[in-house]
Write a structure and sequence with these properties.
The complex is a heterodimer of chains A (251) and B (271).
Chain A (H helix, E strand, L loop, with lengths): L4 E14 L6 E14 L3 E5 L6 H8 L7 E6 L2 E3 L10 E4 L11 H11 L4 H15 L14 H13 L5 E5 L7 H16 L3 E6 L2 H7 L2 E6 L2 E7 H5 L4 H13 L1
Parallel strand pairs in A: 3-8, 3-9, 6-7, 7-8
Antiparallel strand pairs in A: 1-2, 1-4, 4-5, 9-10
Chain B lengths: L2 H23 L2 H15 L3 H4 L3 H4 L4 H32 L2 H8 L5 H35 L4 H27 L4 H25 L4 H13 L3 H11 L9 H27 L2
Helix pairs in contact in B: 1-7, 2-5, 2-7, 5-7, 5-8, 7-8, 7-12, 8-9, 8-11, 8-12, 9-10
Classes of the chains: A alpha/beta (251), B mainly alpha (271).
Amino acid sequence: MSSSVVLKVSGLSKYFVSGFLWGAQKTIAVDHLDFSLSRGEIFGLLGPNGAGKTTTLNMLVGIMKPSSGSIDIFGEPFFIGKISPLARIGYVPESTSLPGYFTILELLDFYGQIFDMPASLRFNRIKLLLEMVGLVKERNCLIKNLSMGQRRLVDIMQALINDPDLIFLDEPTVYLDPVIIERLRSILMRLKSEGKTILISSHMLSEIEKVSDRVAIIDRGKFAKVGPKEDFLRSGTMEQEFLRIVKHADN
Amino acid sequence: MRITDLIKELRLVLVISRDVCRAALKERMMYGFLLLALLFILMANVPFVVKDPKVFGPQRPEVSALQIGFMSINVFTILIAIFVSLNTLQSFFSWERLGLLLSKPVKRVLILEGVVLGLFEMVFLNWFLMTAGVWLVIFSQTREWGLYIWTGMSVTALMALLYVALVVFFYCIIPNMMAGIMTVLLIIAGFGVPMARQAFSTTVSPGFVSSSLALGLNCIPPINSLWGISMQQLRFFDLDIAALSVIFQTLVVIFVLNIISVIRFRRFCQL
């Protein structure tokens, strides 16, 4: 494996079984995905609802156990219960229920302590992140008093508290207005310039088009198309290509 | 495991427990129960005012006051330990919140231990406030330090830990309100253990059956005996209970419940 490969996924599958014995039904959520991410790359994961994007990300961060396949992170096999790679991973879930009784500062401090960061490092990191996302004034506000967009930014801050090398973002633009989306875009470009590897799953095709180096379209658990961004833009916009591929798969 | 790793893990448990305790202290239900408990405890003043032996019997007024306080603390400790813990578990173990924590470098066992410790901190705080209330009432009326009140009531704190361990145990198996109902049922069963033991001791049953029954009864938390120890310490009655063996049995039950909860929690976290 090349040293620049940060994440390597081989034959990753997940199926759910419902029912019992003869009535058991197997639903395939993710079906033999193979891909790898190099250092400093932004990889866009596109797909319609229920395509398997969130399930894939849940397996990559160790929340969900894959039914089959392997995941290598930072050149080492990764599985549920192996916590050392998680210290270098940041994860923004699709939907969070951040505890409303925390202020932004307290929440970030809590996650900083979870990463066993010394107090001085936590303080500096929190200060940097607050400036990065533009929530310095709101730092002492309770989470429950923030707007949905601001909460999303807090989600992003908690994912970056440990200065991760590999970042997974699941629908990060949900609830965000165009101004904050623009800010998020500049944050992503800054992280990319720092050599961070980012996997971003989104419905916002225009955002993926703007920030990604490589794109994959996932449909019914399988990759319908994977390649450099330019491959998706040859015959028009990302949206046109996405609709063409998904409709073709439906037929 | 190295000492530094152990310290790091203990620190993580404390961080999580602080968060859980804080979440529990945000439950309005807890303040409702605590307020009611303190109102009942205030009623412990009544035996000092109404000194009629027809109402409270021939015993000294501080004993009657302690009995009121003892009942209030025990009833409200059960309610707080079960229902506030259950509410806290429901919010803390929500898929989004737990999922985010699982994506961090924390072992699952540490998450669960942090949760148990956090809930116990909350219940302990409530127990402390209620016991302090009873002690204040007695102290204000008798001007005696009455340290035996604290030692007697401390058994209730151990029972609170047992209730929390039970709720967490059942929640890891049935993650809904049923966990609370199961806990209540088991506590009721715990009260009936001595009666059951006495009933079965009079019947002649095959060795296997009687040994299985004995094992089953030993696995049920000895709530009745714990109450007995508490009453003994509070000088209500002169009971003959082997306090150390009952406390040891309770600690073993809590430990075993915790082990099973950890095993179940690993499955609980995996989809």
